[in-house]
Amino acid sequence: MEFRGNLDLQENAILIDWLTVTLHDITVLDIQRMLGLDAADIDWEDRLAFRHGYPRQCTFANIVIRYGADNIDNYQDTEKSTAAEKVRYDMGICLDMSGNGCRAFETYGHGDWFKLLSDICSLDSKINFTRIDLAFDDHTGILDLNRIRQDTEARYFTGSPKKSRIIWSDDQKEDIQGLTVYIGSEKSAVFVRIYDKASERGFNTRHWIRVEMQLRLERALSAVAEILKSRDVGFTFAGVLRNYCCFREPTGDSNKSRWPVSEYWDKLINGAARIRLWISPGEPYNFRKTEEQMVFQYGQALQAYEAIHGNISDLLAESRRVHPDLKKKYKVAINEAKLERQRSADSLKQLRMELGIYDWNNDFPVLEDQMDMAEIFGDELLKK
After folding, report:
1. How confident is the model over 272-283, as pLDDT tens digits?
2. In this structure, are 124 and 194 located in the same domain?
């Protein structure tokens, strides 16, 4: 299965990181087709699960389709006296995709957010966007979370939000400290979280700050309309954030709206606005979390096993016996790693051809000495 997109953690990105929408006069299969997840090899699990008023749900890789509220037969395992009260003919079907569900859609579905949102909005029946989250991932060092914390505590921001919170999470066992800044109320139409994504994933040596904007109801619908109009998620993210909240440099003026915008906030907004073609990173973006969990949760156990047995080959052999068929998300991660290696090899080959040091007949570089071309060019190619 080919992975759509190629996201390096040296590159800032705009993501759609949550989507909840209610649709009417549509079937579960219709929604699966809209996602591009109606193929026979997609293992949807359909079961009774009473959540948010819906008695049934169909799930695949953190994508949940809730339905069945209009059918009294779905309440057969509940109290008969209350079954009729629970039946709702006006609830439609709810598509609920968490952040992991969004990455799964990008990997296993058709992965085209513009197409999905357009298909949803083109339906003739009533549509309710309950929630959509847009996220900006800073991998390049634009944001200093401690500075944002200090400015939040000092109330050096203007805009709609009246509330803010600072939350520290401290896991001394894993030596992880996480900081989250909340701006606004989680129950409001717009809510912003700024947090250390690297610390959340237990990887303290990497800069990864996420600015997550949660939009609800009318604001969510307006954001979707703007995304489809401009075909530009970064522009939409920057526009909403600029109007909602703005961190500023204090000058002593009693009117904070006259304070100049803080340099880091200006860089954030302008940087987000310039990401016109945002990347759909897919499951491999989340697979990095699996790698980090292996280091932090099982790293010491693996070291002990290696010290006792000399290597971990027997452990891997036993794992292959117990799990002969990898899950799709791991297969995708393997395929992406192979594709990345092939892209690097193709780039090096192309460079050798351009320099005239490539033997077309024998498929190897022509070298005047024994120096390895990878030592000369490889590092620079991998940075590009």
Report:
1. 988 755 556 665
2. yes
